[in-house]
Specification:
The protein is an alpha+beta fold. The chain has a six-stranded antiparallel β-sheet with strand order 1-2-3-4-6-5. Helix 1 crosses helix 4.
C-alpha cells in the first residue's frame, strides 16, 4: 500500500511535474495545470480524470476511488484513498491524471 511519501515521489517523477500550494492543499501541476491534489489530513488525494475514465476506475476500485461529491465530480475529478492502493497502481493513476493536462505526451517505454 502507498504512503504519503510514495504519492509525492510518484507525482513528482512525472516529466515537468511541480508541487505547489493550492487552497491550503498540496497541488501537483504541469505548466500550472493541476492534475492532482493531496489532502494530508484526510489521507486522500484528488485526481483529474476524463469522466469516462473516472467511471471505470471507480468500478474497479470502489472502496478506494470515488467521484468528488460536487460539480467537480461530474468533470471527472475523483478522490483516491492512496493508502489503499499499491504504488504501481498509484503510478498508473497519476499518469492517467497527468495526461488529462498534457494529452499529447507519451511516456517513455520502460
Amino acid at each position: 500500500m502507498s504512503s504519503l511519501h510514495d504519492f509525492k515521489s510518484l507525482a513528482l517523477s512525472l516529466d515537468g511535474a511541480k508541487e505547489q500550494i493550492h487552497h491550503d492543499k498540496i497541488a501537483f501541476t504541469y505548466r500550472s495545470k493541476i492534475f492532482a491534489t493531496l489532502n494530508e489530513k484526510e489521507s486522500r488525494s484528488t485526481l483529474k480524470f476524463l469522466p469516462e475514465e473516472q467511471g471505470m476506475l471507480c468500478k474497479v476500485h470502489p472502496t478506494a476511488i470515488f467521484p468528488v461529491p460536487n460539480k467537480w465530480g461530474t468533470y471527472g475529478w475523483a478522490h483516491v484513498l492512496y493508502q489503499e492502493i499499491k504504488p504501481e497502481i498509484l503510478l498508473e493513476l497519476l499518469k492517467t491524471a497527468y495526461l488529462s493536462v498534457r494529452p499529447n505526451y507519451s511516456f517513455p517505454e520502460e
